[in-house]
Amino acid sequence: MTNPYLPAVIGVDTHAHIFHQHLPMVANRRYSPDYDAPISQYLAHLDQHGLSHGVLIQPSFLGTDNSYMLHALRLHPQRLRAVAVVDATISDQQLQALDEAGVVGIRLNLIGKHLADYAGPEWAALFRRLAVRGWQVEIQRGFDDLAMIVPAILACGVDVVVDHFGLPAEGIDPQMASHRTFLHLLSEPKLWLKLSAGYRSHTDLAKARVMLAQLRQAAGGIDRLLWGSDWPHTQYETQTCYADQYAFFEALLPDAGERAQVLGSNAARLFGFDRSR
User: Fold this and answer.
1) What domains, with CATH codes, occur in the chain?
2) pLDDT for residue 235 is more than 60
3) pTM greater than 0.85
4) Using H for helix, E for strand and C for coil, what is the string for the chain?
5) What average pLDDT does the segment 44-53 reach?
């Protein structure tokens, strides 16, 4: 139910990370930050760009210890939501605690990882439990492999969010069977995609415009497109910044009404900013 006393959703950044360089990190991490990315700095970026809300994404190098992110959620319960990293065997009690803190989904960061059996009983059971809660499953994986992963998760009734344009290494090629299959999946009402971090697939503005046209056509519009800054741009800190990424989005979607939809109503609907917790 919409709550008239909640702060208006002017704009949502749906993808950012916070961390402290001295937090305990997983042993098999691909990256170790040598700086801090505190919540105060992130909120300052939102304020500077006229954005009302943000979504924190658990960094892969922190593994399933979501405590630093949860602390930020409790400090700013109306302004923030989060996507956590969890084990498939997480209990309902643990999920409930995350839910009460403001977590609305889990992330599968599958870059450089062996793919688990996401159609198997353990993961499918988790996805069905998340669907009951109205949560989402966020996926980071290269475009070539998405068609192998997404259908089994969608079949569990949960919303699926694909990060970073789907990370297409050489753009989207409908002549490739895997690309064509994923584009077809975009007609599914529970499949969402973030127009974020084009730099992670070496996508400049010209390429992004071509991809956006392909994605828009496949999805039947922009109703399930989102934007995220990917702040603080881990591994690309010297190549971009928050202002650059926001300007990129403005150039990608020059129509103010469409930008307002992606930043506002789309994100509010998926992340529940327009409803009481």
Assistant:
1) 12-271 (3.20.20.140)
2) yes
3) yes
4) CECCCCCCCCCEEEEECCECCCCCCCCCCCCCCCCCECHHHHHHHHHHCCCCEEEEECCHHHCCCCHHHHHHHHHCCCCEEEEECCCCCCCHHHHHHHHHHCEEEEEEECCCCCCCCCCCHHHHHHHHHHHHHCCEEEEECCHHHHHHHHHHHHCCCCEEEECHHHCCECECCCCCHHHHHHHHHCCCCCEEEEEECHHHHCCCHHHHHHHHHHHHHHHCCCCCEEEECCECCCCCCCCCCHHHHHHHHHHHCCCHHHHHHHHHHHHHHHHCCCECC
5) 97
